[in-house]
């Protein structure tokens, strides 16, 4: 390929290259030829060479050596060279490069040129890559051109002024008067540029916004003219007169009417007219309708107009275009809190969108469906959501389960329905629920004493059919351990009668212990449930003792430790076993909070009994299910979180009594005030707790807070740090 080949020949040679290496070779040779010709003083093919270099730049190859050639060509008196030079400046230069400052004077001269096309080139270049310094220098020229008689120049000057306002906010005041006068123009391009400029000015300055609120009647008249005008071949798009200008005017009206009663009243009739007269069968009409809806919902519009806007979004939900359905649900999601009843009318359509094949539409439909759940429709909506949960994509299961839990907690018509709903979720998608689900359900079951028999029977049957869902298995094991006696009596009238024997129950728990699907935490629940059954059954205590002893040599340290402790209860402290393994009291939460899967902080509960050493578990699940037994040691850390450390020291006073000292320290950089230590024990234990040494923890551990408690028999210490 010769150095002087035309642009078309170079493009053809590059496209015919079979490999990337061959393509690079062609471009390198041509760039070398272009560079050599740039050095020549008298070069008649400057625009031709720069055009080829710009094509090379579009392919991603370096073309920076052509920047100065752009500057020289912009200064040329010939229009053909200026055109390519300005194009090259917009592509190769930006405001960060010093070379861009070299064209400021050329742009200023061209803005005063008598040729409107040369003025247009300068305006486009300034609007594309003008720096803040260039904008300050040339802003007066742009203001002058906004008042020119040529509509072609005025519309480009208006868009250039938009760029200047974005770069230098302080220059907005310079264009305010001219922008107002442009609204009276007949040329749609000029009016469009004026609306964009006014929008930018109003968004940047609140005083300017108040000033332009007086233009609302003018904008309304312009918009009405577009809506009721007949066919115009220059502006018609699919039967809509200049939809681009209509959309821009609606956006500006939205800004002017926001939080202003007078401006909103002035545009209510117009918005109703646009909403009812715009054709919704074409994409262009839907674009105008969507902007109308956003404007209605954002200003202080009448209630009937807001209902009309919601109904338009409801029609969008029936559109075959998934993009339109998506934006409709996104808009409904934003207003469901303020216009709940209006959105509720389209609940059926929204629920149907859960079956959409598009993942984004399905996710939006789920979010909106969860937001529409209320006390009046909880049963019907939950039926739909549970059906969706059984077939939804894996990435949506966690969100769906959390939403169902939240809705059930807020609007459950009965405790039994609440429990059944959560168990349904655990059965369907137990592996996708959040960690706090198990302790929250355990608390719910504990607090509904009238449903203990029903719940334990239902969970027992669930355990017989499936042990793969770990949260469900954990709750089932916990319930069997707590209420196994109710399971064995068979007197539950809430469920179908089922024959349950002690051997059947122990067989199920052994299956869980031995299953490869069971996690270490689940095995811990099952082992504790087995141990607790030793006080609730009469004929299989030896079998329970045998099961527990097997896990005394388990390779899982936590499970082994608990088995050793439970063996100690059988051997050394059998007289205390019934008291230690009595039913759990009602579980209370320290803090209120439950929505949307937020973690609920529970009190950390530790069972204490002279025996084998043990470090208490920190997780709420373990606190709800496991009884920790440990021996008298010098110091044990029972709470360590967020910089607060609580240690427990024990001193043996008699065979059945202990003196426990609780010490708290703060390692953070700020003091903690309002700090309290609380203790709770079962009925079989006597507690005498002395007042703490203070109610604040100094920063960086400079001082500690202490309190002492005397206890006898088996006792439970509940450490609950509370800060304010």
Automatic annotation (TrEMBL):
InterPro entries: Adaptor_Complx_Large_Subunit, AP1_complex_gsu, ARM-like, ARM-type_fold, Clathrin/coatomer_adapt-like_N, Clathrin_a/b/g-adaptin_app_Ig, Clathrin_app_Ig-like_sf, GAE_dom
Keywords: Cytoplasmic vesicle, Golgi apparatus, Membrane, Protein transport, Transport
Superkingdom in the source lineage: Eukaryota
Keyword Secreted applies: no
Coiled coil: none
GO BP term (any one): intracellular protein transport
Pfam family, one: Alpha_adaptinC2
Membrane topology, record value: Peripheral membrane protein
A GO cellular-component term linked to this record: AP-1 adaptor complex
Record's subcellular location: Cytoplasmic vesicle membrane; Endomembrane system; Golgi apparatus
Domain (GAE): residue spans on this chain: 631-724
Location of the region described as Disordered in the Swiss-Prot/TrEMBL record: 690-710
Family of the protein in this entry: Belongs to the adaptor complexes large subunit family.
Name the record gives this protein: AP-1 complex subunit gamma
């Amino acid at each position: 390929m010769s150095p002087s080949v035309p642009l078309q020949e170079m493009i053809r040679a590059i496209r015919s290259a079979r490999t990337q290496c061959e393509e690079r070779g062609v471009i390198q040779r041509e760039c070398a030829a272009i560079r050599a010709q740039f050095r020549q003083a008298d070069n008649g093919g400057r625009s031709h060479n720069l055009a080829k270099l710009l094509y090379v730049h579009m392919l991603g190859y370096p073309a920076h050596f052509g920047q100065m050639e752009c500057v020289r060509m912009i200064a040329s008196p010939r229009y053909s060279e200026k055109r390519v030079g300005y194009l090259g400046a917009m592509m190769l230069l930006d405001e960060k490069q010093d070379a861009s400052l070299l064209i400021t004077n050329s742009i200023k001269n061209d803005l005063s040129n008598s040729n409107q096309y040369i003025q247009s080139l300068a305006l486009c270049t300034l609007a594309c890559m003008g720096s803040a310094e260039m904008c300050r220098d040339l802003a007066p020229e742009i203001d002058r051109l906004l008042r020119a008689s040529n509509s072609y120049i005025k519309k480009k000057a208006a868009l250039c002024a938009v760029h200047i306002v974005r770069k230098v906010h302080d220059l907005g005041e310079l264009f305010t008067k001219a922008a107002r006068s442009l609204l009276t123009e007949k040329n749609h391009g000029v009016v469009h540029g004026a609306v964009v400029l006014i929008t930018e000015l109003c968004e940047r300055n609140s005083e300017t916004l108040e000033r332009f609120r007086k233009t609302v009647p003018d904008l309304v008249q312009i918009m009405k003219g577009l809506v009721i005008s007949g066919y115009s071949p220059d502006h018609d798009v699919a039967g809509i007169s200049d939809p681009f200008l209509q959309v821009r005017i609606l956006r500006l009206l939205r800004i002017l009417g926001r939080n202003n009663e007078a401006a909103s009243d002035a545009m209510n009739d117009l918005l109703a007219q646009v909403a009812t007269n715009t054709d919704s069968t074409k994409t262009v009409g839907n674009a105008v309708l969507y902007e109308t809806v956003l404007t209605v919902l954002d200003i202080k519009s009448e209630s009937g107009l807001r209902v009309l806007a919601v109904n338009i979004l409801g029609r969008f939900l029936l559109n075959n275009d998934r993009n339109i359905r998506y934006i409709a649900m996104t808009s409904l999601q934003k207003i469901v809190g303020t216009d709940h009843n209006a959105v509720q009318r389209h609940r059926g359509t929204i629920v149907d969108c859960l079956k959409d094949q598009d993942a984004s539409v399905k996710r939006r439909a789920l979010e909106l469906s969860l937001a529409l759940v209320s006390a009046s429709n909880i049963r019907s909506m939950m039926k739909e959501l549970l059906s969706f949960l059984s077939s939804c994509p894996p990435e949506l299961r966690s969100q769906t389960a959390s939403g169902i839990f939240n809705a059930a907690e807020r609007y459950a018509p009965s405790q039994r329905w609440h429990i059944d709903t959560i168990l349904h979720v655990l059965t369907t998608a137990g592996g996708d629920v959040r960690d706090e689900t198990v302790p929250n359900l355990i608390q719910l079951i504990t607090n509904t004493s009238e449903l203990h028999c029903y719940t334990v029977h239902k969970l027992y049957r669930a355990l017989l059919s499936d042990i793969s869902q770990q949260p469900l298995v954990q709750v089932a094991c916990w319930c069997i351990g707590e209420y196994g006696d109710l399971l064995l009596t068979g007197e539950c009238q809430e469920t179908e009668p089922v024959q349950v024997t002690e051997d059947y129950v122990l067989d199920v728990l052994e299956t869980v212990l031995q299953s490869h699907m069971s996690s270490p935490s689940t095995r811990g629940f099952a082992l504790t449930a087995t141990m607790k059954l030793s006080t609730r059954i009469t004929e299989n205590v030896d079998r329970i003792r045998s099961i527990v002893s097997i896990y005394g040599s388990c390779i899982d340290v936590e499970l082994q430790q608990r088995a050793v402790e439970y063996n100690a209860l059988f051997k050394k402290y059998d007289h205390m076993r019934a008291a230690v393994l009595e039913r759990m009291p009602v579980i209370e939460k320290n803090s209120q909070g439950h929505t949307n899967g937020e973690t609920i902080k529970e009190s950390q509960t530790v069972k204490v009994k002279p025996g084998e050493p043990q470090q208490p578990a920190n997780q709420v699940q373990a606190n709800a299910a496991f009884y920790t037994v440990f021996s008298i040691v010098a110091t044990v850390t029972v709470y360590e979180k967020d910089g607060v450390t609580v240690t427990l020291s024990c001193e043996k006073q008699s065979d059945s009594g202990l003196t426990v000292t609780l010490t708290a320290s703060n390692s953070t950089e700020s003091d903690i005030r309002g700090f309290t230590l609380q203790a709770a024990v079962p009925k079989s234990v006597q507690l005498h707790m002395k007042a703490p040494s203070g109610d604040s923890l100094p920063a960086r551990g400079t001082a500690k807070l202490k309190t002492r408690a005397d206890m006898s028999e088996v006792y439970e210490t509940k450490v609950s740090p509370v800060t304010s």
